[in-house]
Amino acid sequence: MSLVSLNEAEKVYIIHGVEENFRCDGRSRQDYRPLELEMDIVSNANGSARLRLANSDILVCVKVEIDTPLPEAPKDGKIEYFVDCSANATPAFEGRGGEHLAAELSRFLCLAHGPVFNLSKLCIVPGQSCWKLFVDVLILECGGNLFDAVSLAAKAALCNTSLPNIVGTYEDGQNIDLQISDDPFDTKPLEASDLPVLVSLCKIGNSYVADPTIEEEICGAGCIVVSVTPKGNVTAVLKKGAGSFMPDTLNEIIMSGSHIGILLNKALNETLIQDMSSNVCKQQYGFLK
């Protein structure tokens, strides 16, 4: 994924630092790098968020439209995830270099959110019409730990999403014509606070670290990504890399990921509540500060 290269001395330095619980940037094994979050920054989207985790920069937009429910789920809505790796994020994404990572991120986001996201709340008329959400993720810059950054930005954007209100219907036989409010402020928020976030734990030597940098990912023997809800429930687990994990180590990593996920969800939810409850007109920043 990255063109960063390390010599053997640099790798040994990173591994020994992790063993002593002191990483190159001064963090301990369980610490995250600073996070910055901006909400509602894309005016023509129903919800948006931009998250920066150190050098990883993620933009997520959510658009909604009316669609027909699936025959096997007539009372459920739909949601689709699409991840795009910008060629400017890292030279490794040039051409079709980021397609595999984008597909893996899209699949795992769908797998992680699936058991928690209540699609029935997106239903308008059972069997005839529902809301369909398009969650578009753009990776602007790659600084390591993309799974965690993308999941945090996607949850923030979904919590920022509002659905237009249906003000009336017109029935013509069995066909129903929906009338959507013309008022852009006549909306209702999407309930997404229970969605999980992803926690990546990278095995380096005999220890494992949270929020790995690109250099630490190079030194890692493998990585476990855990999807954790605000209550600490694990909805999905993904293993990356060629390394192996003993059963006891794997259980320990999943339990540690669950604990970290609770703290991450709590911090994100507090930030989202503060953003929604604030009546002060905040200055909006673009991508240049």
UniProtKB/TrEMBL annotation:
GO cellular component: cytoplasmic exosome (RNase complex); nuclear exosome (RNase complex); nucleolus
Originating organism: Acyrthosiphon pisum (Pea aphid)
Domain Exoribonuclease phosphorolytic: 32-164, 194-255
Pfam family, one: RNase_PH_C
Compartments (UniProt record): Cytoplasm; Nucleus, Nucleolus
Coiled coil: none
Cross-referenced InterPro entries: ExoRNase_PH_dom1, ExoRNase_PH_dom2, ExoRNase_PH_dom2_sf, Exosome_comp_Rrp42_subfam, PNPase/RNase_PH_dom_sf, Ribosomal_Su5_D2-typ_SF
Record's keyword terms, sorted: Cytoplasm, Exosome
Name the UniProt record assigns to this protein: Ribosomal RNA-processing protein 42
Family membership: Belongs to the RNase PH family.
Main location, first listed in the record: cytoplasm
UniProt superkingdom: Eukaryota
GO molecular-function term, one example from the UniProt record: mRNA 3'-UTR AU-rich region binding
UniProt-listed GO biological process terms: exonucleolytic trimming to generate mature 3'-end of 5.8S rRNA from tricistronic rRNA transcript (SSU-rRNA, 5.8S rRNA, LSU-rRNA); nuclear mRNA surveillance; nuclear polyadenylation-dependent rRNA catabolic process; rRNA catabolic process; TRAMP-dependent tRNA surveillance pathway; U1 snRNA 3'-end processing; U4 snRNA 3'-end processing; U5 snRNA 3'-end processing
CDD domains: RNase_PH_RRP42 (cd11367)
